[in-house]
Write a structure and sequence with these properties.
Strand content: 15-25%
Radius of gyration: 26 Å
Low-confidence stretches: 1-22, 32-44, 46-52, 54-97, 364-375
Bound molecules: copper (II) ion
Structural class: alpha+beta
Shape: elongated
CATH architecture: Sandwich
Length: 385
């Protein structure tokens, strides 16, 4: 079934959804009108918001915990279940005929950690970012761990210390006669220069990271297009004979039975080759969605009528889970993403199992000669394309 048909079938003009949509739109336009009328007011608010954001940054690790808690998972998964291969995933005859079997996820890799699970360091792991499996992810995580977090901690403790000192030393009892000092050039120079130095120290790696994330995919990158639908994902492989994958969330009990995290597991994963540059393109068919996989440091909006594109190179094979990260309707929370990165030769086997072709192969796989092409040759084709 083609994606467009599936989309039409799965998105009937439900009166409930329709009315919810227009209510939402009304609310939005009301809000927009409000902003236009009170722009001055808004600017003042922005200054307050900026201050609040600085405070909120201090509590960033707590929000990561909340994100982890949103996917109730590992607690129901016995260790042996996680290691067990996904029996029962191979369903179609085409799959059975090939060497491809869906990869079992590794516990704690590419998925959030439950703080109460028996995993080593579960509490600490649940408080910070997931382990990263891309170069950009490692760079960003290093910046967070070794620059941002220390700067935030030192500044917070310093300001807290100053406040406590003022409270104790300069309260009315201890200091009945207040000083009339109004200016101190030395202090003013210091409290201007020091923050500038701190901002420059943060800006250098920050801008570097931004530039790295905008790197254009090389010409030989493997193109995979992710399309957001209300409420599931579709993946197409233009380089591989137009393979189309429709990816829906598995029910919780089925996910646990297969040894996968609940509310993150899907029936058909986005299968990609590992260690090879990928050109991930995102778009959407109805509303704005966002394709996001935390352990790959990848997040990109999927906008109807637009094609966004970003380079992704996954360092090692594995199953990496993510979620739609743009509020897209009532089932926004139920359109997870599962990326399965395979060694290139296994990816070639998967392509064949889907009835696709590797780049450079004949379009019709009916010719028996095409099936005899050794895996190594397919890998070469994959990497040289
Ligand atoms: Cu969505």
């Amino acid at each position: 079934m083609k994606l467009a048909e599936v989309s039409a079938e799965r998105c009937p003009s439900d009166p409930l959804v329709g009315s919810m949509g227009s209510e939402f739109e009304n609310e939005i336009s009301k809000q927009l009108g409000h902003i236009e009328m009170g722009q001055m007011h808004t600017r003042m608010k922005l200054a307050t918001l900026a201050a609040l954001a600085a405070v909120a940054a201090l509590f960033a690790p707590v929000s990561v915990l909340a994100q982890d808690a949103a996917a109730p998972i590992v607690e129901q998964m016995g260790a042996e279940q996680v290691v067990a291969p996904n029996a029962g995933v191979v369903e179609s005859a085409a799959d059975a005929a090939s060497a491809y079997t869906p990869m079992a996820p590794t516990r704690g890799k590419g998925m959030p950690t439950d703080p109460l699970s028996d995993e080593p360091n579960a509490m600490m792991k649940s408080l910070t970012f997931q382990d990263q499996y891309t170069d950009n992810g490692n760079y960003a995580l290093g910046m967070h761990d070794y620059i941002l977090l220390p700067v935030i901690t030192i500044i917070s403790l310093f300001v807290l210390g100053l406040l406590l000192y003022v409270i104790v030393r300069f309260n009315r009892g201890a200091n009945p006669e207040a000083s009339r000092t109004t200016h101190n050039t030395m202090i003013e120079v210091v409290w201007t220069i020091v923050p500038v130095i701190i901002l420059v120290v943060i800006a250098v790696p920050s801008i570097t990271l931004l530039a790295r994330q905008y790197e254009t995919p090389p010409a030989e990158a493997v193109t995979i297009k992710a399309t957001g639908y209300q409420w599931y994902w579709g993946y197409t492989y233009p380089d591989h004979g137009e393979i189309e994958i429709v990816s829906n969330m598995l029910p919780e009990d089925e996910a646990v039975r297969r040894g996968e995290p609940g509310q993150l597991a899907v029936d058909n994963r986005m299968v990609v080759p590992a260690g090879v540059p990928l050109r991930i393109q995102t778009t959407a068919s109805d509303v704005i969605h966002a394709f996001a996989v935390p352990s790959l440091w990848f997040k990109m909006d999927a906008v109807p009528g637009r094609l966004n594109e970003k380079l992704l190179t996954i360092k090692e094979p594995g199953v990496y889970y993510g979620q739609c990260s743009e509020l897209c309707g009532s089932r926004h929370a139920y359109m997870p993403i599962a990326v399965e990165a395979l060694p290139p030769e296994q990816f070639a086997a998967w392509v064949k199992a889907q009835g696709g072709t590797m780049p450079g192969e004949e379009a019709a796989p009916a010719a028996p000669a095409a099936e005899e092409a050794p895996a190594a040759e397919q890998v070469a084709l994959l990497t040289t394309r």
